[in-house]
Each structure stands twice: as C-alpha cells, then as structure tokens.
Design a protein that fits this description.
The protein is mostly beta strands and 80 residues long. It has strands at residues 8-9, 17-20, 24-29, 35-42, 48-50, 57-60, 69-70, 75-76.
C-alpha cells in the first residue's frame, strides 16, 4: 500500500474471519494491552491469509468500497 499508511486490524471479538479491502496490512490480535506482536501480512495475489499468531483468517473482499473491513470495528487506530 504505497499510497498511504498500512491499516491495522484487531480481533478482540474472537471472530473466525474478517473481510478486508487491503492485501497488505498489520494484524495486532486483540486491542492493546492484550495485543500480540504486530505482524505484517501480505496476501500477494491471493484472497486469504491466516495470522500466524492469532489464527484469524483474513479474506480479501473487493466489494468493500466504503469500508476497509467488515466488521468495521476490526480496524484499529492508535489513539493520539
């Protein structure tokens, strides 16, 4: 994602999978302070990738145009 910052996703809800509109991103596991080491994941030309720490399955969904992920609260942004 050379055009901007790399999105970070979290899975505090313990979902089996999260749909994303990014092929390169960071998985942080749960929200801090319960996060795992932040892992850079790159799907390449594939449509799925599993985080090696928390086993969350991320699925690329090109239909997500207005949101970067579903559920929307899986997107994590660090408080300023």
């Amino acid at each position: 994602m050379a055009a901007g910052s790399i999105p970070h996703f979290q899975n505090s809800a313990g979902l089996q999978s999260i749909r994303v509109h990014a092929r390169e991103f960071m998985c942080i596991g749960a929200k801090p302070p319960f996060d795992h080491p932040h892992v850079y994941l790159d799907m390449g030309s594939g449509d799925e990738i599993i985080c090696p720490y928390c086993s969350t399955l991320y699925r690329y969904d090109p239909a997500l145009r207005t949101a970067i992920c579903a559920p929307a609260d899986a997107l994590w942004t660090e408080a300023a």
